[in-house]
Known about the structure:
This protein has helices at about 15-30, 35-40, 40-55, 65-75, 80-90, 95-105, 115-130, 135-165. With about 180 residues, the chain is an all-alpha fold.
Amino acid sequence: MARVPVLNSPDQLTGDARRIAEKIVDTRKSLEGPFSVWMHAPEWAERVAHLGALVRWEGTLEPRIRTLAALVVGRHFQAQYVWGVQGVIGAERNVPRSTIDAVRDDRADGIPPEDLQIIDFARQLLRANRVDEPLARAVMERLGADEYVQLTTCIGYYAMLAMTVNGVELDPNPKHESLKV
């Protein structure tokens, strides 16, 4: 059970908070997940929603790469909500089930090399707070500076989501796969 009340409808709010919630629902279709708790700090919710739109739907970084990074973040932080949602999105973006399972089980076997490069990049950044030079150089060569920065920002964005849902003990969506923690 969440440590703060879950605010999943604009009807639960008034004034600017309600306006912000309605705007978020217009773009995201709901206040699910971290937004259901960020609405306790509406200005933060609004700003994070703006960043989230950029990270999730805009920019030039391939959506599949974003999803691989988000899966690694969800697993790293054992963030049930993030993991569950990204598992669904991964399937929609043709991430093989064997890759999702390998990320879940913290393995590398069976992951296509181009996916493993992104997964290893995210794992190194999260575990060591750095990426070793050969991998950083390879990802830079593959993506270019712009998308390299988008990838690192994507990892940071999903880390923020993971810490939020973990910090408030937000229950995962019961329809989604959960991690064994």
